[in-house]
Amino acid sequence: MDNATIISQLYESFARGDVTAVLERLDPAVEWFEAEGYPAVGGRHVGHAGVVEALSRVAADWDQLALIPDRFVAQDSCVIVLGVVSGSYRASRKSFRSRFAHEWLLRNGLVTLWRAHLDTALVREATTG
User: Fold this and answer.
1) Helix, strand, coil: what percent of the chain each, to 5?
2) C-alpha span between 103 and 111 (Å, rounded)
């Protein structure tokens, strides 16, 4: 299976809320970088436990969170995914929508690094008030 297909399937697993399927495709020492400035979880998380902690926090804070990829660009061990992320912050009931770019690095079919890029000002705006 090629890297772009692996990553496409990961987005499908995320959409189903299937964390087990996601973790099966992550290297045990994966480095997971939520966008700097993303409330509560921005920055580096390491390993399966770090990813589960970050994803749990995001799931606890947001309703209707959706990642809609619309382009996969693959070269060697790297896959770049472009798309739209949206959601509603539970505490404020405000929504946001932002374009994103996700960087995925793989080795032997497992993700060793994931890095998110999005407009965190839009996210922070949704978390206020």
Assistant:
1) 35, 45, 20
2) 10
Which residue shows structure tokens 């399927």?
21
Who contacts 5 (Cβ-Cβ below 8 Å, separation ≥6)? none
Profile the chain (129 residues) by mean pLDDT over runs of 10 residues: 96 95 98 94 97 95 95 97 97 96 98 97 91
**C-alpha distance across the termini of the chain, in Å:** 46
pTM over 0.90: yes
Q: What are the two backbone dihedrals, phi and then psi, of residue 36, each rounded to the nearest 5 degrees?
A: -60, 135
Q: What is the pLDDT of residue 129?
A: 65
Which residues neighbour 125 within 8 Å (Cβ) at sequence distance 6 or greater? 94, 96
Distance CA 70, CA 37 (A): 24
Q: Between the CA of residue 92 and those of 39, 62, 111, 122, what are the distances in Å? A: 13, 10, 34, 13
